Automatic annotation (TrEMBL):
It comes from the Bacteria. It comes from Muricoccus pecuniae. Residues 1-250 form the EAL domain. The chain holds residues 456 to 705 of 737 of the full protein. This is Diguanylate cyclase (GGDEF)-like protein.
C-alpha cells in the first residue's frame, strides 16, 4: 500500500530513470544495442530495483503509465546514439491488456522520430498464456510498424517450442541460468545448442544473457549465438555513460 502510494507519487515527481546494458555482437563484441532497465530513485531508499516494484505496479494498475514512460524515455535517449545502435524495452504482459498499446508504440515512434527498426520490445513467455489470440494480433500489428519483438528469459517459463512457430519473434534471449555453468556443464551446452539450432530453422536470432566470463563468451560464439549481454561487457549504466562505453568497447 505504502509502495503503491509511492509509485503514484514517483510518476508525478519524475523519480524513475533508465539504466542501459549493452548487447554486443557475439563474434566481434561490437555494441549493437542497449536494453533499457528501469530504476526508481526513491527519496529515502535510494535506487530501487525493478524486481521490488514492477509486480506491484502490475497489480495496482500503474504499469501502463510506467511502461509508457519507459518506452518514451528510451526512444528519446536512443535518438542521440549512433544510427545503427538499437534500444530494447521490456513490456509487461499486463500492458497487452491495454487496447491502446499498439497505438502508443506508434505514437512514441512518431514523437521521437526513432526509426522503428531501432526499437526492440522484449516480452516474456507468460504473455502468451492469456488470450493468445489478442496478444498475437497486437504482436503482428507492432511488427507491422517495423519494430522487432524479442522473447525474453527464454527457457524459464512455460516454454512451448511451438510458440516459436506461432508467434512472430525476431529474437530469443536465452535466460542467464543456462549461461551460468558454461562452458563445462554439458547440459547447458546442449540446451544452448538446441535453442540456436531451432531458432535458426525459424530465422530467429539468439542472444545469451548473463555473460560474465570470457570463457562463456567464447563458448557462446562457438555455438553460433548472435549476440551477448552481461557483466563481462558492462553492468547497466546511466544514459550519460553510453558515448564513452561505445568508445571503450569499440
Ligand atoms: O535491472 P534489473 O537487472 O534488476 O532487471 C530485473 C528485471 O526487471 C528485468 O529482467 C526486466 O524483466 C525487469 N524490468 C526492467 N526494466 C523494466 C521495465 O521498464 N518494464 C518492465 N515491465 N520490466 C522491466
Ligand atoms: O530483462 P531481464 O530480466 O533479462 O533483465 C536483465 C537482468 O539481468 C537485470 O536485472 C540485470 O541487472 C541482470 N544482469 C545483467 N547482466 C547480468 C550478468 O552478467 N549476471 C547476472 N547475474 N545478472 C545480470
Ligand atoms: Mn529483458
Ligand atoms: Na532476461
Amino acid at each position: 500500500r505504502a509502495l503503491e502510494m509511492g509509485l503514484r507519487q514517483a510518476l508525478v515527481r519524475d523519480e524513475f530513470l533508465l539504466h542501459y546494458q549493452p548487447l554486443v555482437d557475439a563474434r566481434t563484441h561490437e555494441i549493437l544495442g542497449f536494453e533499457a532497465l528501469i530504476r526508481w530513485a526513491h527519496p529515502e531508499r535510494g535506487l530501487v530495483a525493478p524486481s521490488e516494484f514492477i509486480s506491484i505496479a502490475e497489480s495496482c494498475g500503474l504499469i501502463g503509465e510506467i511502461g509508457r514512460w519507459t518506452l518514451r524515455r528510451a526512444c528519446l535517449d536512443a535518438r542521440s546514439w549512433p544510427g545503427q545502435v538499437k534500444v530494447a524495452v521490456n513490456l509487461s504482459p499486463v500492458q497487452f491488456k491495454d487496447r491502446q498499446l499498439v497505438e502508443a508504440v506508434r505514437a512514441v515512434l512518431e514523437e521521437s522520430g526513432l526509426a522503428p527498426e531501432r526499437l526492440e520490445l522484449e516480452i516474456t513467455e507468460s504473455v502468451l498464456l492469456h488470450d493468445s489470440e489478442a496478444v498475437l494480433s497486437s504482436l503482428h500489428r507492432i511488427k507491422a510498424l517495423g519494430v522487432q519483438i524479442s522473447m525474453d528469459d527464454f527457457g524459464t517459463g512455460y516454454s512451448s517450442l511451438s510458440y516459436l512457430r506461432s508467434f512472430p519473434f525476431d529474437k530469443i534471449k536465452i535466460d542467464r541460468s543456462f549461461v551460468r555453468d558454461l562452458p563445462h556443464d554439458t547440459n547447458s551446452v546442449a540446451i544452448v545448442r538446441a535453442v540456436v539450432g531451432l531458432s535458426g530453422t525459424f530465422g530467429i536470432s539468439v542472444t545469451a544473457e548473463g555473460v560474465e566470463t570470457s570463457e562463456q563468451a567464447r563458448q557462446l560464439a562457438l555455438e553460433d549465438c548472435d549476440q551477448l549481454q552481461g557483466y563481462l561487457f558492462s553492468r547497466p549504466i546511466p544514459a550519460a555513460g553510453i558515448p564513452e562505453l561505445i568508445g571503450r568497447l569499440a
